[in-house]
Design brief:
The protein is α+β, with helices and mostly antiparallel strands and 97 residues long. It has one domain: 2-Layer Sandwich (Alpha-Beta Plaits). The protein is 20% helix and 36% strand. The chain has helices at 39-50, 63-69; strands spanning 12-15, 21-26, 32-37, 58-61, 74-81, 90-96. The strands form two sheets. Strands 1-4-6-5 form a four-stranded mixed beta sheet. A two-stranded antiparallel ribbon has the order 2-3. β2 (21-26) and β3 form a beta hairpin. The chain is globular and about 50 Å long. 18% of the residues are buried.
Length: 97
């Protein structure tokens, strides 16, 4: 995009692997939404918010996700990061692309 004089795009993502609860929330007579809730949803959201540490694109993942994708992509350890809502630091990794 830079070669065409356009601004570069950068994005951030957080992925956590594990069980979640999914379903519709609300009332059939009013607003009805589909949502997911759970510890892994919260962790993915925290990882996403931490993925914007510079102007580049980053995908941060937890240990379970790293183990699941290690055979198809490269990862880089970001060490243990203190995450709001967790009593212990979380080992995090970045998907390298």
């Amino acid at each position: 995009m830079r070669e065409n004089g356009l601004p570069e795009l950068a994005f951030g993502a957080g992925i956590s692997t594990g069980e979640v609860i999914s379903g519709r929330i609300g009332s059939y007579s009013g607003r009805l939404d589909f949502t997911v809730i759970g510890d892994h949803v919260n962790l993915a959201a925290r990882l996403e918010s931490m993925s914007h540490f510079d102007e580049s694109s980053h995908i941060l993942i937890d240990t379970a996700t790293c183990e699941a994708v290690s055979h198809i992509c490269k990862t880089l350890s970001h060490g243990e990061i203190k995450v709001k809502g967790k009593s212990l630091p979380v080992k995090t990794y970045e998907i390298i692309f």
